[in-house]
Structure formats: structure tokens, C-alpha cells
Amino acid sequence: MLKYSLLLLAALAACTPSGSEQRQDKNDSESPDTATPTALTTPDVPVVSVTPSAYTDTTAHDTDDPAIWVNPEDPARSLIIGTDKEAGGGLYVFDLDGKIVPGRSVLGLERPNNVDVEYGLMLNGQPTDIAVTTERYTHKLRIYSLPDMQPVDGGGLPVFEGETGAEYRDLMGIGLYKRPSDGTIFAIVGRKTGPTDGTYLWQYRLEDNGSGQVSATLVRKFGNFSGRHEIEAIAVDDELGYVYYSDETVGVRKYYADPEQGNEELAMFATEGFAEDHEGISLYTMPDGTGYILVSDQQANRFHIFTREGYKGNPHDHRLVKIIETETLESDGSETVSVNLGPAYPHGLFVAMSEGKTFQLYPWEVIAGDELKVRSQD
User: Fold this and answer.
1) CB-based contacts of 44: which residues, under 8 Å, 6+ apart?
2) What is the pTM of this model?
3) Average pLDDT along the chain, 378 residues, taken 10 residues at a time
4) Who's near 142: CB < 8 A, 6+ residues apart?
5) Which of 117, 215, 311, 372 is buried most deeply by CB count within 10 Å?
């Protein structure tokens, strides 16, 4: 994630399934044998309740994860792409009022789980913005051009090939990374479960296959896993070159996003104060490299906010600075952008999934309050 600030600056310069499946799907985010969790408090950290400015139209089945595409010509006409995670679900496309955009949604997918967007993948010699979702039941990445949402994947790209463990190919998380040095775009992919030997996540290079469709080439396997629950939420900081992911019930792990920089785990944070699952991760970025990392405390219906930049000369020392109590219920995925999206969201937008087949929209200044910075806009 975090492609939006660079995009706009460049432009200015030039879950409710039914029956037995409901029980299985709820295990993605809940432990049914666990008593109702109690929200934990952290001394000296402000806890503030916030209210959304809008809700999206409802989807058919069960929302899970949003992404935001920033329109470079008119940011107020940017789009929210959200997954509806069920067999026969899809990608729903909303405007900034939360209304479904006619003719843009992609339906009939086989349980799309998470989604991310990236800008400027070269296809047929033209820079193409893309939305990538994980299609769990087919074990494929599905890729669509933006803003028209046309398929550019030749029917889907299989991933985790050769894996034979139970649910080792059941796709969940996705984070896209555009390497600043050469513009190469990568997909970092997670699954329902996987090994504990440091190879849970697989990273693929995305490029034109020579016919204007996307191909995916495996470039590395990395990522520690506690083995306690699962890994779903993945977020990438393009500008600083890091990837973060939630090892649920344990914490947030941090690595280099560039495969050429190795597989060393740089940090593990957010290890205390969560009721149960660590879920959606999103980032609010400032031009000077500062900002915030927001992590869903799913069963407590709130988000913990950490510094993006670290402390005392250590860029990997991410400290808790605020907790927000939202109106979301059991929030899985979230997304944040820090660019001016027009009069309704002049300092950026935070979007979070909620039970009830919706996503909730919060202006960044509501999240920031008096405690956090807001990005000044020209």
C-alpha cells in the first residue's frame, strides 16, 4: 500500500455466509472456544471514540478488505474497492460517498479475500493501474485494470504451486510493492496457514507476459509464523521499503519489501494490549517519512496506532501513540491514504471493514483528533 501519495504528487507535478460454511469462515477471525474478550487498556495512551462520516452500500455476502484507488486527475472521484468474501462473491467498487459505482464491480469470484492496488504496471507499453485480489478457492491471483476493472490476468495466476499441506494454498492476504529504484511491481501473498520455517509468505514479480497480460514469477519465500493462528493482513510501505503483516494473536512483523535486501525480520511490535486477533494494517504517510501504522484489534472493535518512523535512531522501534474505538464490528481489513481527496476528505481517508456487509469511511482528521498529525494539503 502507500502508493497514493507518490501518485498524486506526480500528477500535480506534470462476513455473513450461512450454514456449515459460516462456522468455517468465522474461524478466519474468531476462536469460538474463547470467552468474549475484554478490551485492554495501555497506561498513558489516549483512547478516543470516533464516528464514521459514511457507510458503503451493502454487499451480497460478507465484506473483508478494502483498497483505495486515487484518481490522479480528480482525487474527489477516487474509488474504494472492497472484497465480498464468499463463493460467488466479488470485488465491489464504491465512490467516496459509499455508493456502488454502476458497471464497475466484478462478481462471481470464488471467495476473494483481500485486495490491494498499485500504480503504473507496464502493459502493452502503457502504464496501467491495477487491483489485485486473492481468490481463495482457485488458489489464484486475479488482476484488474483501474479504473475500468477489466481482467488483465488471462484468467488468473496460480500461486503457492507445489504446496501440499492442508490449506497451504488457500489464499488470504495480498500486499503490492513498487520498488522505487526501477518501478518493478511485486505481489506479496499470504495463505490460510503455512509453515513455521520462515517461508509463510511468497513474493512474485508482476510483469507483462508479452501479450498485454500479467505474469507472476516467484522471487522469494520469507516470513516467520508463530503457528498460533494465521497470517492475513499485509501492508507495504513503498516509500520506505517495508512490509508489515499480522501474526494473529501474537503481533505485527516487519521485513524489507525488496527481495534483494534479504529475509531478516526487522521488528515485532504490537505484542501487548490486544484482546485477541491482530488484523487489518494500514498506513498514513507524511512526505518526511513520518506517519502512522494502524492495526485492527478485531474483537475489541478498535484500532491501535503506532508511529511509522521509529525512535532514537532505530527505524524499527514502532511505539503505540493512540487507540481509537470505532463503530466497526469485528473489523478485518482497512486502508488509509494521506492525500487530499476533495472537500469531504481534505487530509486523507481511513476505510475499515465491518460486520453487516459494509465498509465505514472516516476522515483522517477525525482519526487524528488532537493527538496525531495531519498532512497539510496545497
Assistant:
1) none
2) 0.90
3) 45 37 39 41 86 98 98 98 97 98 98 98 98 98 98 98 97 98 98 98 98 98 97 97 98 98 98 96 97 97 97 94 97 97 97 98 98 88
4) 106, 109, 112, 132, 133, 134, 135, 151, 153, 156, 157
5) 117
